[in-house]
Amino acid sequence: MVTAAVQAPPLRLEGARKHYGKIVALDGVSFEVRPGELVGLLGPNGAGKTTAIKAIAGRVALDSGSVHVFGRTLTPRDPRPEVGVVPQELAVYPKLTARENLEVFGELYGVAPQALKARADWALEWSDLKDRTKEPVLRFSGGMKRRLNIACSLLHSPSIVLLDEPTVGVDPQSRERIYEMLRALQKSGVSVVLTTHHLEEAEQRCERILIIDHGLIVASGTLDELVRSTLGSRRAVHVMLDAAWPATEAMPGGARVGEDGRSIQADLPDLGGSLARLIDGIGRAGRTVTDVRLTGSTLHDVFIALTGRELRE
């Protein structure tokens, strides 16, 4: 029987180590990205996120370890036309129009002259800037500049896109439009890796999350996988009563009464049995439940549990 060859992932970072003097930026980082996947790389400032992105882009030479693109092992000097890099800092020319910016970056990326116009047309349509084609970028809003910044990095049709804080400083509407752009890329098979300080954004948008701290990947997986492996399956429940809890009655096991006397909080290991027992105990005390609110652990909870500190701008 002939076994089909396993296709190499679009991107794989293996055992990446990088020191800056005594500072350890990367301490053996390994991960891979699948076709059409949106991966979030999260971590505190100085955790190694940007160094990892620069190593993949060929802008930082690793002390040891390797970068693989579609199975090809790269050195910092090797070209990587499959990769597009979108920096956090805006890298567009304010006095040029949107199309002129695209044409300049297209030439820098080596897009063939006969293909450049079609690629610029696509970029303007994709970034929702078609009606601002001839307008100088200095007149653009922050969100428009950010979208053009992304478009300029994709003119050479990369299969892997690396974005460093792609939605920093933009309004909610522009943020939504940027993620619509990224979803369109994913549908075409493009793999996307982004860093962000917006934990809720990563929680809602990323299919898989990598958390890096002190130069190490300390956790990876979907949000559900990260919650289960880090915090377990416990759920918090908040119950409102029709009247204050009787002072003579003991609270149901593990529950706590709020300062108002009418709210009860509890951490439940399982919803099926624990919640039913809690509500039954409330009924035996002569009180009626008027509202129940369940909350699960968030990416913020996972992040704090793993790193012990908040993400900082």
Summarize the structure.
The protein is α/β, with parallel strands linked by helices.
Record keyword descriptors for this entry.
single chain, 313 residues, alpha/beta, Rossmann fold, Alpha-Beta Plaits, six-stranded mixed sheet, four-stranded antiparallel sheet, 9 helices, elongated
Total count of strands:
14
Strand order of the largest sheet: 6-7-8-3-9-10
Q: What is the CATH superfamily classification of the largest domain?
A: P-loop containing nucleotide triphosphate hydrolases
Quote the average pLDDT: 90
Write the CATH architecture name of the largest domain.
3-Layer(aba) Sandwich
Largest sheet: 6 strands, mixed
Into which percentage range does the β-strand content fall?
25-35%
**How many structural domains does the protein architecture include?**
2
Please describe what this structure looks like.
- This protein has helices at residues 49-57, 98-108, 113-126, 142-152, 172-187, 199-205, 223-230, 271-284, 299-307; strands at residues 11-20, 23-33, 38-42, 64-69, 72-74, 83-86, 160-164, 191-195, 208-213, 216-221, 235-241, 256-257, 263-268, 289-295.
- The protein folds into two domains: 11-228, P-loop containing nucleotide triphosphate hydrolases (Rossmann fold), CATH 3.40.50; 233-296, 2-Layer Sandwich (Alpha-Beta Plaits).
- It is built from nine helices and 14 strands.
- The relative contact order is 0.14.
- It has a six-stranded mixed sheet with strand order 6-7-8-3-9-10, sandwiched between helices.
- The chain is elongated and about 85 Å long.
- A hairpin with a 2-residue loop joins β4 (64-69) and β5 (72-74).
- Helix content is 32%, strand content 27%.
- Residues 1-5 have low confidence and may be disordered.
- The longest helix is centred in the middle third of the chain and has 16 residues, at 172-187.
- It has 313 residues and is of the alpha/beta class.
